[in-house]
Every structure is written in structure tokens, then in C-alpha cells.
Amino acid sequence: MKHVTYSDKSLLLGDTTADLLLEYASALGTDGTADAVTVKAMSSDGDDVEATFLLGEGAPLMAETSTTTVPEPDNADADTYLREKIEALVHPAKATTLPQGDVYPDDYAEFQS
User: Fold this and answer.
1) Which of 27, 50, 87, 100 has the fewest CB neighbours in a 10 Å radius?
2) Are 72 and 14 contacting, i.e. CB atoms less than 8 angstroms apart?
3) How open is the CA angle 4-38-51, to the nearest 5 degrees?
4) Which portions of the chain are predicted below pLDDT 70?
């Protein structure tokens, strides 16, 4: 487990989640964007909590090791989200070209998300 400190608040997170949170914050800062990420954590009072971190350039975030033997909160979904977002920032999808010729807006429906 790691103590994750954001501003003046410190929470306990699993090692993997803490590391991914920092990696994602770094990638967002490099990209000049931001995101809010919610994770399960343990408060300094020992309570199970959900914490939302606003990550981006200049986010005051750090992680340090701890010696606690308390079980880590289950953040499998958050870890998956963080990995996908990091991958998208580090290896963005390549642009594709559209067909040439007389094409109308309805012809691009397959490219709209």
C-alpha cells in the first residue's frame, strides 16, 4: 500500500493504483489536459472511502510507501481505466484518410462516434 497525498490530504491506495494514478497524472500534464478519476481508498481515520482526484498539469500529487498490512482496496476497474487512458495518451490512434470524390456528410456516419 502507498500513502497518496493530494494537496493536504493523504489516503492509502494499493501500490498498482497509486503508481498508475501518478503515471496518468504525468501523461495528462505532458498532454496539457486534465481528468477526474475516482478510486477506492482508505482514509487516515481507517475508513473505506471513494476519492476523486483531479489530475492534470500542476496537480499536487505524490505517493510514498507504507508498512501497513491492511488489505488493499479493490480498484480493478479504476486500474483498467487508468491503463487505457495512459495507453491512449502515450500511443495515440493514428489518423486515417477519408475516401476521395463527391462525398456528402451522411457518407461519414461510420466515422462518427
Assistant:
1) 100
2) yes
3) 50
4) 98-113
